[in-house]
Amino acid sequence: MSSAPLTDPSLIDQDDNEEEDFHLPRAKRDEEEMDITPMIDIVFLLLIFFVVASRMDPTQIGTIPEAEHGLAVSAKDSAVIFIEPGGADEVIVKRLDGSQFSRDEATQASEIVDYVTNELEKSEGRNKNHVMILGDKDVQVGQVTRIQKVIGDAFEDIEQTYIAVKED
């Protein structure tokens, strides 16, 4: 018995080539839209990075500007507090007579309140209703603001708190 091939090999090759050449056409989208999801992810990652990496310390923001114009305020009519740089991030806070307040901020706050209370009470007929804070130009803004906040929180009836800087 002789065996004869059931299919011709040349026919098989032609069928494979025809299948390889046949491709379905790509369906076109009705609307061409851009996916912005990755861009939104990157924006939020950058936002989180800058919030975490930035410093929110108001003492590092800037320095007190020099005064160009201002009103003349008498030290006789004010409780006067001097602020001088004390090295690094510390300041030296002094009374009008030159004596220093404590360097501990909590103790210093109570001493400032006592000092301003005494100064306002001993005005003897003069209308002492405001506080004058005299700062050196190298004092950080946050330190002046801290002392001003101590005074503002303790004395609601004070009309004005004046801030002055030492001129060059």
Written description of the protein model:
With 168 residues, this protein is α/β, with parallel strands linked by helices. The chain has helices at 9-21, 37-53, 105-121, 141-154, and strands at 78-85, 91-94, 130-135, 160-165. The protein has a four-stranded mixed β-sheet. α3 packs across α4.
Q: Would you state the CATH class of the domain at 59-65 and 73-165?
A: Alpha Beta
Cα-to-Cα separation, first versus last residue: 122 Å
The CATH topology of the domain at 59-65 and 73-165 corresponds to Nucleotidyltransferase, domain 5
Shape category:
rod-shaped
Largest sheet: 4 strands, mixed
Per CATH, the architecture of the domain at 59-65 and 73-165 is 2-Layer Sandwich
Taking all Cα atoms into account, the compactness measure Rg is 39 Å
Order of helices and strands: HHEEHEHE
**Helix fraction bin:** 25-40%
Total number of β-strand segments? 4
Query: What is the mean predicted local confidence, pLDDT?
Result: 76
What's the tally of helices? 4
Briefly note the structural class of the backbone. Answer: alpha/beta
What is the beta-strand fraction? 5-15%
Strands side by side in the biggest sheet? 2-1-3-4
- What are the low-pLDDT stretches, counting only 5+ consecutive residues below 50? none
